[in-house]
C-alpha cells in the first residue's frame, strides 16, 4: 500500500475530498467547531460512538463533510496498540466497499509509534494476494493519506513505516506463493531483482558452486528434489567498507514434505510457507533499498525443496557439513537446521558483527509461543536485548528462550559428531542448540518463526513477520553508528 503524509487538522479533514475516511477518536477527544468534530462529539454524547479501541460508527454523507464515507473509530488511549486495533477494524469494514482511496486522520497529535501502527494496520487490512488467480479481485484500497496535526513532526516515522510496509508486502507475496510458483530459482530471481535499488548487490550460487564450498548438509536436503538448489547472497552496502556487517540467514525450504520421514497429508500444503525466513530477508532488503540507511547488511538464503525420492537422504545417513562436523540425519523432516548450519558456516567469511538466522524451524515453537511472539535464542545478552526492544517497537514481538548446554544432551550419537534431532521434549530449544554448534565464531541469534510467519485456518496466509523486528533492529544499529561517528567528530 502506498501512503502520503499530510498536515490535516479536524477542520481540514472535514473539507477533505477523499472516497473514505477513518477518524481516530481517542478517550481524550477534544472537539473543535468544525462539522467533523461536532459529529464525533455528538455521537460520543449519545453513546452511539464509544472511544474504546476497535469500536466503530460508520456514517454516510454526513452533514458538512466532503468525504461521503466517514468511519468514526474509537482509538482508546491512543497508544500504538490501540491505534492498530482501531485502524484494523475500520479499514476491514471498508474493504468490500467502493472506495479506492482512504484518509486515516488522527484527531490528536499521534503518540510515538501510532503512525507506524496505523500504516501497518491499514496495509494489512487492505492486503489481497493475487499472483495465482486468473481473475484477481483488484486491490481496491491501494492508497491512503495519513492525516496528522503536523506532518513534519511525523515524517521520520512515516518514511520508516512506508518502507516497513513495502518490505512486509514483498515478504508476504513470496511466502504466499505456492511452491511451484516460488521455486529456489524463482526466489533467486526475486533476490536478483532487488539489485535495482542503490547499494544492493546479489550473487546466486548453484549446485556446482555449493558442492565446491563443501556444503554437504545443505546438498543432502536438496538431493531428493528435481528442482536445483540455490544459495542466494544479498549485500546492502550502506556503511563504510571497514564496518562489519550484520548477516541475516533465512531458511528457504520452498516446500517441506518431510522427505522420507514424510509428513501427514492434512495441512501439508502449509509447508509452502517454509521459506518464510527467506521471504523476510527479501522483505528487509526491500525496506533497506527504500530507506538507504548507513550500515552494511548481508542476506544469505539456502533455498531448496525437501522431497522423498529414490535419491533422497534416509534416516541414519551421515553427512559432512561445511564446518567439517559430521551429522547423523535421524529425521529427514528436521531439514531446516541442515540447510542453515552450512549457511552459518558461510557467514564466517564476512567477519560479521552479528548473525541472525530466521526460520520456520519447529512445530514445538508454535506450541510453546503460539502466533503472538516469535521464539528468540541468543548467545549474547546485548543482542538479545536489542532484538526484544526492536520487536516491541515494530509491533512484531519475540520472546527469549533458553540455551542451557544440558538441552544439547539429546543430540549425542555414536555415529557422527551430532544428530539432527533429540527427543520430543523442548524441540524448539534442541533445534537451536544444534544451530549454536555452527555459530561459535560470532555473535548469534536465532528466530524461530514457525508460529508467527503465517496464519492458518480461514485467515490462511503469510504475515510478513519478522520484517518489522529485523528492520527496527538494523535501523537502531545505524542510529547508534551515526551517534558514535558524531562523538568521534566525523
Ligand atoms: N518446517 C517444519 C517446522 C514447522 C512445522 C513449522 C509445523 C510450522 C508448522 C520443520 O522442518 C519440521 O518439520 N520440524 C520438525 C522437527 C522434528 C522432526 C524434530 C517438527 O517440528 O516437527
Ligand atoms: Mn521439516
Ligand atoms: Zn521445514
- What compounds sit in this structure? ligand BES, manganese (II) ion, zinc ion
Shape: elongated
Low-confidence stretches: none
Biggest sheet details? 9 strands, mixed
| CATH H-level superfamily of the largest domain | Zn peptidases
Separation, N- and C-terminal Cα atoms:
38 Å
Count structural domains: 2
Explained architecture:
With 490 residues, this protein is α/β, with parallel strands linked by helices. The chain has two domains: 2-149, Leucine Aminopeptidase, subunit E, domain 1; 173-487, Zn peptidases (Aminopeptidase, 3-Layer(aba) Sandwich), CATH 3.40.630.10. 36% of the residues lie in helices and 21% in strands. The chain has helices at 10-15, 35-45, 80-94, 114-126, 151-176, 184-193, 207-213, 216-222, 276-291, 336-347, 363-369, 381-393, 427-436, 467-487, and strands spanning 2-7, 20-25, 56-60, 69-74, 101-106, 143-148, 200-205, 230-237, 246-250, 252-256, 296-306, 317-320, 326-329, 354-359, 374-378, 398-400, 418-419, 444-448, 454-455, 461-462. The strands form four sheets. Strands 7, 8, 9, 10, 11, 14, 15, 16 and 18 form a nine-stranded mixed β-sheet that branches. It has a six-stranded mixed β-sheet with strand order 1-6-5-2-4-3, with helices on one face. Helix 9 links the parallel strand 10 (252-256) and strand 11 (296-306). It is elongated, with a radius of gyration of 24 Å. The two termini are 38 Å apart. Manganese (II) ion binds at residues 256, 258, 333, 335.
Structure summarized in a few sentences:
With about 500 residues, the protein is of the alpha/beta class.
